[in-house]
Amino acid sequence: MVIEDLLDLTIKRNASDLHLTVDYPPVIRVDGRLSNLGTVDLTDEMCENLIMPILTDTQKNLLKRDKELDLSYTHSSGNRFRINIFYERGHLAGAFRLIPSTIRSIEELGLPPIAHEFAKLSQGLILVTGPTGQGKTTTLASIIKEINELYSRNIITIEDPIEYIFPKAKSIVSQRELEQDTLTWENALRSALRQDPNVVLIGEMRDYETISSAITIAETGHLVFATLHTNSAAQTIDRIIDVFPENQQNQVRSQLASILEGIISQRLLENLLGGRVIATEVLLATPAVRNVIREGKTYQIDNIIQTSGDLGMITLEKSLVKLVREGKITLETAQSVSLRPDEIIRLFK
């Protein structure tokens, strides 16, 4: 058994992920559900023989030093995988995420139409949020695809690792991968301003340094896209502000109120009709939203979203109820995903 064979099965079964863990057989995830590939449990030696051959000497040294490693890998079929190699209980393990070979459009993903407007912007901050594995990178890729195809822009992406490869179109797209093309997020973000960008995509705003840099780049007249692991628009704003020391938070509120253009918070759910389906919450930075951010009254954001549907905003609950009515998810699934399950019942009646 070699890794190419397992990845080949992952592709043929239309799985999103492959997991290699000692004492378990190889496991794939299809439409959100885990299933075993065979019945033979992996041993320490088997995991090492599957994983180590795909690593370069530099990557092996990084794994030895850090005990974990992110990388991308191209299968013989041309399909690409985002990989995280790590140790658990002293054993080598790996999680392989299949990256679709084509970048789907905003319509094909079922994203709200407002995503087209985000692609037209010349400056500001657009955030795509949600838990791990909810399609945030795919959503950003579809918006960048539209910019690349319709406009003449200089697009810089900073990723860990690079996932989707953008084909040559109207824009220039320079994709930078951590470790391969730059040593740190801080260096890459600092350098981005010297690379004459129109658009900067930051794979993940993960800490004070990346959040601070994203704000600076957006403030200096660029369009910035980034992801964040938060559950809602209101939580996203609180998370950004809470990263900063207390004596800087008022200033950051003012900065964020000025540069934020929109937040898409999303969930991927198993579609009863086959495949997966997306549910979204959308916040747009209207004058009312900017004022609420500036004054630190983020608890009012949910109410603003609820009452601003005519502007293109949508609550997650309204999105979920629409999917229930279309027969794509069950009412129980909608309630389990929502932060306000009672609101699901109210809207459904």
What's a concise summary of this model?
The protein is α/β, with parallel strands linked by helices and 349 residues long. The chain has helices at residues 3-12, 44-51, 57-66, 106-109, 114-120, 136-150, 185-192, 208-219, 233-242, 249-259, 287-294, 301-306, 316-325, 331-337, 341-348, and strands at residues 17-20, 27-30, 33-36, 68-74, 80-88, 91-99, 124-129, 154-159, 172-177, 199-202, 223-228, 260-270, 276-284. The radius of gyration is 21 Å and the shape is globular.
SSE topology:
Blueprint lengths: L2 H10 L4 E4 L6 E4 L2 E4 L7 H8 L5 H10 L1 E7 L5 E9 L2 E9 L6 H4 L4 H7 L3 E6 L6 H15 L3 E6 L12 E6 L7 H8 L6 E4 L5 H12 L3 E6 L4 H10 L6 H11 E11 L5 E9 L2 H8 L6 H6 L9 H10 L5 H7 L3 H8 L1
Parallel strand pairs: 7-11, 7-12, 8-9, 8-10, 10-11
Antiparallel strand pairs: 1-2, 1-6, 2-3, 4-5, 5-6, 12-13
Helix pairs in contact: 5-6, 7-8, 10-11, 13-15, 14-15
Order of helices and strands: HEEEHHEEEHHEHEEHEHEHHEEHHHHH
Q: Would you count the extended β strands for me?
A: 13
Number of helices: 15
Largest sheet: 7 strands, mixed
Beta strand %: 15-25%
Sequence of strands across the biggest β-sheet: 9-8-10-11-7-12-13
Radius of gyration: 21 Å
Question: What can you see in these coordinates?
Answer:
The structure is a single chain. The protein has about 350 residues and is an alpha/beta fold. The chain has two domains: about 5-100, 2-Layer Sandwich (Beta-Lactamase); about 105-315, Rossmann fold (3-Layer(aba) Sandwich). It is built from 15 helices and 13 strands. It has helices spanning about 5-10, 45-50, 55-65, 105-110, 115-120, 135-150, 185-190, 210-220, 235-240, 250-260, 285-295, 300-305, 315-325, 330-335, 340-349, and strands at about 15-20, 25-30, 35, 70-75, 80-90, 90-100, 125-130, 155-160, 170-175, 200, 225-230, 260-270, 275-285. The strands form two sheets. The protein has a seven-stranded mixed β-sheet with strand order 9-8-10-11-7-12-13, sandwiched between helices. It has a six-stranded antiparallel β-sheet with strand order 3-2-1-6-5-4. The chain starts with a helix and ends with a helix.
